[in-house]
């Protein structure tokens, strides 16, 4: 069986807008592609346009999750 090689570039943008300033918001991002027998991840970058610190963790299913909290409007 011949393997087909494909190279994909995915760009995802999420933008929130609210009627009034939000004082606190908690976010959990599931945006990291999975590296497994069927695909290789050549690179992955996540840019968050806020000064909030973030933490990456692996959930029980082996998915990488990025979490951050915004605590000021």
Label this structure with key terms.
elongated, single chain, 73 residues
Describe it for me?
The structure is a single chain. The chain has 73 residues and is mostly beta strands. It has one domain. Helices cover 0% and strands 23% of the residues. It has a three-stranded antiparallel β-sheet with strand order 1-3-2, with no helix packed on it. A hairpin with a 5-residue loop joins strand 2 and strand 3. The protein is elongated.
Query: Helix amount, in percent?
Result: under 10%
- How many helices? 0
Q: Describe the main β-sheet briefly.
A: 3 strands, antiparallel
Order of helices and strands: EEE
Low-confidence stretches: none
Task: Output mean pLDDT.
Answer: 88
The proportion of residues in beta strands is 15-25%
Output the structural class. Answer: mainly beta
Whole-number total of structural domains: 1
The total of beta strands comes to 3
Radius of gyration: 16 Å
Distance between the termini: 55 Å
Shape estimate: elongated
- Strand order in the largest sheet: 1-3-2
Short description:
A 3-stranded antiparallel β-sheet has the order 1-3-2, with no helix packed on it. It has no helices and 3 strands.
